[in-house]
Amino acid sequence: MNGADVLCDTLLAGDVDVCFANPGTSEMHFVAALDRKPAMRCVLGLFEGVVTGAADGYARMADKPAATLLHLGPGLANGLANLHNARRAGSPVVNIVGEHATYHLPFDAPLTSDIESLARPMSAWVGRIGHSDEVGERAAQAIAASRVNGGGVATLILPADAAWGETSRTSPVAQTPTSEGIPDDPILREVATRLRNGRRTLLLLSGHALRADALTVAGRIAQATGARMLAQQSNARIERGAGRVPIERVLYNIDACTADLADVEQVVLIGAKAPVGFFAYPGKPSDMLPPGCEVVRYTTRGHDALASLQALAEALGVTPDAAVTLAKPTPPERPTGALTPASIAASVGRHLPEGAIVCDEAITSGHAFFKLTSGAAPHDFLALTGGAIGAGLPMGTGAAVACPHRKVVCLQADGSGMFTLQALWTQARERLDVVTILFANRGYAILHNELKQVGAGEAGHNARRMLDVVDPTLDWVKLAAGMGVEAVFVDTIARFDDVFALAMRRPGPFLIEARI
Amino acid sequence: MNGADVLCDTLLAGDVDVCFANPGTSEMHFVAALDRKPAMRCVLGLFEGVVTGAADGYARMADKPAATLLHLGPGLANGLANLHNARRAGSPVVNIVGEHATYHLPFDAPLTSDIESLARPMSAWVGRIGHSDEVGERAAQAIAASRVNGGGVATLILPADAAWGETSRTSPVAQTPTSEGIPDDPILREVATRLRNGRRTLLLLSGHALRADALTVAGRIAQATGARMLAQQSNARIERGAGRVPIERVLYNIDACTADLADVEQVVLIGAKAPVGFFAYPGKPSDMLPPGCEVVRYTTRGHDALASLQALAEALGVTPDAAVTLAKPTPPERPTGALTPASIAASVGRHLPEGAIVCDEAITSGHAFFKLTSGAAPHDFLALTGGAIGAGLPMGTGAAVACPHRKVVCLQADGSGMFTLQALWTQARERLDVVTILFANRGYAILHNELKQVGAGEAGHNARRMLDVVDPTLDWVKLAAGMGVEAVFVDTIARFDDVFALAMRRPGPFLIEARI
């Protein structure tokens, strides 16, 4: 048995049975080993950003890691942007990065690079296998590391000779997911005391606290104590929709955000981070909270969010039958007027099937959706967590692999969609039930706003050449068709509503280019 | 005047007047400054791998750096693979990487990452600006660093507040390119002595030694001393074709390469590295030279290749009128038979206009081209230097920006083409005269070979799912059209020859999908 076989067995024993891959020569023994393991589902991405973004989307929905297979330093580098998003999402991911044989490294062959230096910024754990005898142990460490603190990116570097070398240490080491349980008593008591101290309190939620069961408990606590409840600005996954506890998010715009939070006197963090500006702007604050506002952390991402909230409710005397307001179903009215992000959101909201998974990388076009769909059928909402664009199409791909019986709807801006458009091919290859709504505003609309925000003025010739995606315009129907995904162009809301309704009734993949 | 203005002025004063860009919010002041500088040509790439690959191609042809504009750590990460190729090519590149304002960094906003750790593996120089007063000096350092040792990647990190901050230190510091001249006398004498010692000698060339003028001198030396002459396996640029000194390259296949070099007793490196295996294989050597073969370095990339070779010729008594064999023009016969890499090479060879620039990322389909076109019209040949795929289309884009009056021909494999297909949009946007020959073999053909080479056997189900790009097949005519590039599909050599001949006569961009 060689190291590559042990690696496969260890992954499977650790409940890692999907491998998003873009392999190269140095990974050929691992490819051959995967060939001998029908239990491992191998999903090819035609670019590594698809591979890592799919692993992120998969982890968000499966609550366990997929493996990625990446070719040396440059292959890892191509996947780093979406690993950055996975890191911010707290998604468990196990990267297998091929490397030259150990004895070959000193020769500095063309593809040699410092893989650790590339991996570290986006990884919670980085390990290198030295010999085929170490493969099982190191792989088990990587799987375990991916599940620490609620989930993280673990990067395992696999030299070719460790993969092809024979080993007698063949027992794969199975792993148990780590949970930190609930916070210690003193913290629980402090938070409970604060929630009764009469100050204007914000419960700020992220991570598993945004799953429906935990949200219900958090909603009861907020309602009973008079606290306000908000989700972090970007979150890996929110379970929302009609019949669930609705939650708004921290605002993106600095001025609106600071105004919105101006009267908050204390914040309780539940798996969330204190709100900060997404970017810095001249003369504007980085900290979104008002001066003097106190911040106390109740749970980290590693805690059991549901159990922690239940313990807090109990300490506060909030019982499981305490009142909580749930989102009412939105009346399914057919939208009229112009084709805009808002009318599209209304249409999506009325046709979205129960259990749908919405992946949002619509950037400026996505703001309307969240507001207008709190009463849509219950669904999961997955957002761009790290700001590294090119997340949406791969994320939807991975979510569909994780949940083959649920509809995936990608809300995708055109500018960011171009970064990882190769994901459409994987959707076609794997017959994934993904419907992409491509918001064609033909530019980096957000950057026109930001150019004003930073006080840099209106765009002139050079700026427009860098912010507008026109001359030529992109034809997404052709791009999708070129990768085997059926697509249509729409420019009226009536047509959009008809096409989207149809797309919800038949299996995907499918793409709707909406000219807004 | 703010830091961003000083940065632009310093770049322009340093003869950096093209900026390949994909900006974000943190770079908006730099974008605004570029807006005020009509002398700076801003070229948008819809993905950062296009931006950096274009900068590489530009540098190879312009012999000076372009700037890149990249958005924070993830934006840099997306560009790293082609920076890896640029590093291996010795291409001068000045990366401007936006960063959060210095005071914003401790807040760990979503896009925060360790940019230095990401940049270092692919950069010869990494610098961070601390304050707007430092912008001019640091930018000048970056430009200078990009020209050390013949050319390298310099990465300058620009915090937003250094860009928007006012400064009185406005004088841009102009830079002079660095050259190390010719090697010291003792080295010159040793090399000259060796070339007369009667042993079987290999002159191994790379860098500027592969330009026509230097190659002519090297060819005379080789011919006069009986030495064999070879180019490194992958090179930034070779000036070749009819009437020039022909040169073969070190072979890729390990067995063929070691057999080819088996009788070499000594190697003289002229801007090249000693030949090593591109990858390691079980039981095969890393070092391609036979045991006991001595290696002596004459020049590094930083030396003046032409002057160094002239000095060596003089020391050897090889005069400028010494005999040297030049490549004869290939008779322009119309190829017949099947559409194959070889018949395509024959067609390209007969229609290639003088001064064309050929960018080769055809991988398995590209081997035939080099052999069959040594007698084509004089042209430049740019190769994949670092093995990080996705180089070809961006490289052709950058070469066309550098040389607007020369025809660019990209030899592009389909698998690698998908990594940075967004480059086609930039070719359309900038009306670049690029003709892409897309070799559609519908898979990672090289990996099927490699799977056998490493002894891993024939591909089974999982392996084929990762190595074959079928089900669905890609339609490159639609992909190109979706980005505004006219394209045709051909599957006979007669049709290819007709279409390619036409493409050589009219301005591009244009793409030919050749089903091989």
TrEMBL record, chains A, B:
The Thiamine pyrophosphate enzyme TPP-binding domain, residue ranges: 384-513
Thiamine pyrophosphate enzyme N-terminal TPP-binding domain boundaries: 1-106
UniProt keyword annotations, A-Z: Thiamine pyrophosphate
Highest taxon listed in the record's lineage: Bacteria
InterPro entries according to UniProt: THDP-binding, Thiamin_PyroP_enz_TPP-bd_dom, TPP_enz, TPP_enzyme_TPP-bd
Protein family according to the UniProt entry: Belongs to the TPP enzyme family.
Name of the protein this chain belongs to: Acetolactate synthase large subunit
Species of origin: Pandoraea fibrosis
Lineage: Bacteria, Pseudomonadati, Pseudomonadota, Betaproteobacteria, Burkholderiales
